Amino acid sequence: MEPIRTVELFAGVGGFRLGLEAASDRFKVVWANQWEPSMQEQYAFDCYTAHFGNDRSQVCQDIAKVKGSIPDHDLLVGGFPCQDYSIMKKNSAGIEGPKGALWWQIDDILREKRPRYLLLENVDRILRSPAKQCGRDFSMILRCLYDKGYAVEWRVINAAEYGNAQRRRRTFILAYHSVTKRFRDLAEGVCSKWLKFMHKYLLEGSILAKAFPIKSHGTDYSKFWIDEMVYSDVQDLSVRQKVFLYNAGLMMNGLVYSIDVHPQMESPIALRDILEDGRVDEHFFLRKADMPSWRYAKGAKREQRIRLNGEKYWFTEGVVEFPEPLDRPARTILTSETQVGRTSHVVADPQTGRLRTLTPVECERLNGFPDGWTDTGMPEKMRYFCMGNALVVPLVTRIGEGLIADL
Ligand SMILES: C[S@@+](CC[C@H](N)C(=O)[O-])C[C@H]1O[C@@H](n2cnc3c(N)ncnc32)[C@H](O)[C@@H]1O
User: What is the pLDDT of residue 100?
Assistant: First the structure.
């Protein structure tokens, strides 16, 4: 069996690679890139190489500087950084966009390398971004992929709904090039039966629908063209496009169809089931001195605050369960996990009943990584940071199995 030469961008601690290698040993990562711009130390890269070896195919530099050395490959994967989609704005340099806008790095690599498949992961709000021009950024991505000869399917997946221990919603974007059989079959169906075919494909036939079965769908949908008949180029689209995109969609030959789908739910894993069995170290337990801050952070509020411009406004937010319910999957883990704040998880320790934060191993379990995966010499707070950045590995395994079946 031929290997599937895979390139992993924005590799973090290797969630994509772990997930794909669990799906099949045909996935061979031939080049990987990870570089954390905000830090001197490169803990995620060190973790990656601790597990996958350190040779010249693992590169710790800004992708903008090293993309020219990427070898030929069949599959490009990556969870590209996503904090700010205003970076998608074009500057006077036109379609190349400003430096640091990481989608444009991927776009450049696709233009140069044309891998047969592309698998990306991002936050769910990528479909709505930017707030004042809903759907523009994702439409730009679709148009870039259309221009390079790809068909695209996407799904927002909540990991807990497909048998995992974390309610983490992420958009998976899968594209296949016109040289693939899947593209040709899809093109033929869309040509002869149009939306009817796209609808059925989205619900049953797509790789993502097979990996994450769908129970039903809503009645609203969006349908629009992003091709050159409507927008002369990406720049034109970026100015005029505004559209609501649902949690599942498909783009073929410039035609986009998107609907709201409801998952065929699988039994979730409860937070209780991933907690460590034995005694955990004392430093995980909440300190008495921090209790007022924890209570304040988790509590409901209505208070007057002042904007930078001096304007006063009422800030309100509801209560967060404190401690976390153990009979449900966890909320999403963020890079700030365990810092005193609303989003950090606090659990009643099953052994002692005392309140504590999650351990790094528990965060690894929530993402489906093996225990101790990030225990490669980095400070403890970086282990949480890396898990806040990472993805839910078993989801990638499912998509990988779908790809293998397709190939
Ligand atoms: C969302 S995380 C992906 C995490 C990964 N999927 C995992 O399982 O750990 C994005 C990663 O891109 C890296 N990154 C950010 N800017 C980069 C750049 N210019 N070049 C290369 N990597 C970059 C970050 O350090 C971060 O680890």
Answer: 37
The 3-state DSSP class for residue 336 equals coil
* Dist. CA 304–CA 106, nearest whole Å: 44
Does any ligand 1 atom lie closer than 6 A to the CB of residue 16? yes
Is 10 close to ligand 1, i.e. is its CB under 6 Å away?
yes
- The set of residues, in sequence order, having a beta carbon less than 8 Å from that of 274 and lying 6+ positions away, is 165, 330, 362, 365, 366
Quick one: pLDDT at residue 83?
Answer: 61
Distance 14 CA to ligand 1 centre (A): 10
- CATH class for domain 271-389? alpha beta
Q: Where are the domains of the chain?
A: 4-267+395-406, 271-389
Mean pLDDT of 306-317: 93
User: What class has domain 4-267+395-406?
Assistant: alpha beta
Beta-carbon count within 10 A of 284 CB = 19
Report the C-alpha gap between 113 and 119 in whole angstroms.
Answer: 15
Quote the percentage of the chain above a pLDDT of 90. 82
Task: For ligand 1, say whether the CB of 400 is within 6 Å of any of its atoms.
Answer: no
Write the residue with the smallest CA distance to atom 26 of ligand 1: 12
* Ligand 1 pocket mutation, candidates 7, 9, 10, criterion most atoms within 8 A of CB: 10
Q: Which pair of structure tokens corresponds to residue 66?
A: 């090293």
Q: Is the dihedral of CA 370, 387, 208, 33 positive or negative?
A: negative
CA dist list (Å): 19 to 9, 16, 136, 248, 367: 14, 5, 30, 22, 11
Query: Catalytic annotation on 82?
Result: yes
**Which ligand 1 atom minimizes the distance to the CA of 34?**
22
User: Does ligand 1 have an atom closer than 6 angstroms to the CB of 126?
Assistant: no
Question: Closest ligand 1 atom, CA of 386?
Answer: 9
Which helix H or strand E contains 209, and what residues bound it?
helix 207-211
Average pLDDT, the chain: 92
C-alpha 296 to ligand 1 mean position (Å): 33
Residues 319-350: pLDDT tens digits?
999 999 999 999 999 999 999 999 999 999 99
255-270 pLDDT, tens digit per residue, is 999 999 999 999 989 9
